[in-house]
Amino acid sequence: MTEAPKGDFWDEKIERMGSDELASLQLERLRWQVRRCWEGSPFYRERLDGAGLGPESIRSLDDIEKIPPVTKQELRVEQKNHPPFGRYAVAPPGDWGELHPSTGTTGVPVGTIWSRKDVENIADFTARTMWSFGVRPGDIVQNAFSYGLWVAGMSVHYATQKIGCFVIPIGATETGRQIFYMNTIGSTVILSTPSFGLYIGEKLRESGVDPQQLKIGGFGGEGGTQNPATRSRIEGALGIDAYDYFGLGEIGPTFASESVAKSGLIWAEDHHIVEVLDPETRKPVPEGEVGILVITHLTREATPMLRYWTNDYARLESAPSACGRTHRRSPGGVLGRHDDLVIYRGAKFYPVQVEDVVRSFPELSNEFRIEFLSDEETGRDRCVVVAEAATGEVGGAMAESLGEKLRGALQVTPEVEIRAPGSFERTTFKAQRFVDLRNPEK
Asked: What is the rounded CA–CA span in Å between residue 331 and residue 262?
């Protein structure tokens, strides 16, 4: 383990790099990556040749727009046709260190390989994210990220070693055990999905336990941590400062987070080029506008992604964060997945918008669902927001108030149903917020 840095920055030279210097570094690394993909990957060579691109085609950062984006489905097809890993692994097998498949929550998992150098880089920029939201040597980190298919558990584990923390590698196990270790060992940091963090908070309240040592939480795997109502609930339930965390199995499990300034996800732009594109035209949107995140690896050796189409909506801002970090930010975090877009009576909205409304009512629990059903008489779609009372019974006036607030936020009026406390199953992983009941066999 190297000695952890002092001060507010893990790597101040990188984190406060000027825009021109950072762009120069990105271009150098992009040209290196495109060349090695063209030379070492039949998958990428076919795609680049098809777009009329060669190793010398990238002369400026704007030239990245000439590279066709790659989707998860294309990676699945490639691995199916050329098992087991497809033809986009660039580093030779002798350099491979670890295999980490994606979660597979929306289809067949995609195998991602980390070289030994990739492991070092991932550990380093994960340590950078954790340092930015206040983790320091000597902290006791309760790592409730999964050590299984979703690989954030491993990256955080490596990062805690670099920082000099004491880690409890508990993973996404049941809440009773989480509370036991939190209370007896004195965890100072917790890392989990927002849903699991809220669930642990519920159980702490029920048990009357107050984890007085706990001070910081990083929450990823789902959007919503930057929603004011959700952040307030997490911070109140656990008595901590809560920070948003983001990663993707195909890109990196923990490569963007909020800092202590809570000014949005800060991207590790020395390792990644982050774009926000219009989902229809696939052209960059103006700064501050919402589009699809597209991410390119600049330093990944084993299975690099050139313009990976994440299907996640976000926005980008280039103004430095109040904490002094200069890499671009995404205020509000990930706003929803393109797959999760709800279209109802001409209005479009995301589960994260419903979340912000539901969690603004203290009479309601943290849980909710958006259910789509078909009206048997008319054949029309019905959209029902199903919430759960926090304690006891909630009368019709609460359902009416919730409906009014949803109408104002969504510009459409869904039906509202409030169920008894404990109606929804809690999860240690990613909560399912949208349920389509129109075709049960789908």
From this structure: 9
Tell me the pLDDT tens digit for each residue of 68-91.
Answer: 999 999 999 999 999 999 999 999
Query: Strand, coil or helix: what is 342?
Result: strand
Amino acid at residue number 336: G
Q: Give 164 or 195, the one with higher predicted confidence.
A: 164
| Average pLDDT estimate for 345-355 | 81
Q: Of the candidates 437, 311, 313, which has an alpha carbon nearest to the alpha carbon of residue 375?
A: 437
Query: Could you tell me if 27 and 51 are in contact, meaning their C-beta atoms sit under 8 angstroms apart?
Result: no
Amino acid found at 274 = V
pLDDT digits (tens, 9 = 90+) for 166-195: 999 999 888 999 999 999 999 999 999 998
CA 290 to CA 285: how far, in whole Å? 7
Task: Decide: 315 and 331 in contact? Cβ < 8 Å.
Answer: yes
Contact at 8 Å (CB) between 106 and 76?
no
Other C-beta atoms closer than 10 Å to the C-beta of 212 total 9
Query: Virtual CA dihedral for 272, 273, 279, 280, nearest 10 degrees?
Result: -140
Rounded to the nearest 10°, the torsion over CA 369, 440, 348, 235 is 20
Q: What angle do CA 99, 292, 105 make, to 5 degrees?
A: 40
pLDDT digits (tens, 9 = 90+) for 123-136: 999 999 999 999 99
Q: Which of 292, 375, 325 is CA-nearest to residue 125?
A: 325
- What's the pTM value of the predicted model, to 2 decimals? 0.84
229 by DSSP, 3-state: which?
Answer: helix
Q: Which residues contact 274 (CB under 8 A, 6 or more apart)?
A: 267, 293, 294, 295, 316, 328
Cα separation, 35 vs 437, in Å, equals 48
> pLDDT > 70: what percent of the chain?
94
State pLDDT tens for residues 239-286: 999 999 999 989 998 999 999 999 999 999 999 999 999 999 999 999
| Residue closest to 282 by CA, chosen among 272, 293, 298, 271 | 293
- Kind of pairing, strands 381-389 and 140-143? unpaired
List alpha helices for 110-227, DSSP H.
116-132, 152-163, 175-181, 194-207
Find the DSSP H helices in 53-173.
72-81, 116-132, 152-163
Q: Which domains does the chain have, with CATH numbers?
A: 1-338 (3.40.50.12780), 341-436 (3.30.300.30)
Q: What is the DSSP letter of 420?
A: P
Alpha helices in 164-253 (DSSP H): 175-181, 194-207, 228-238
pLDDT class of 387 with cuts at 50, 70, 90: very high
SS3 312: strand
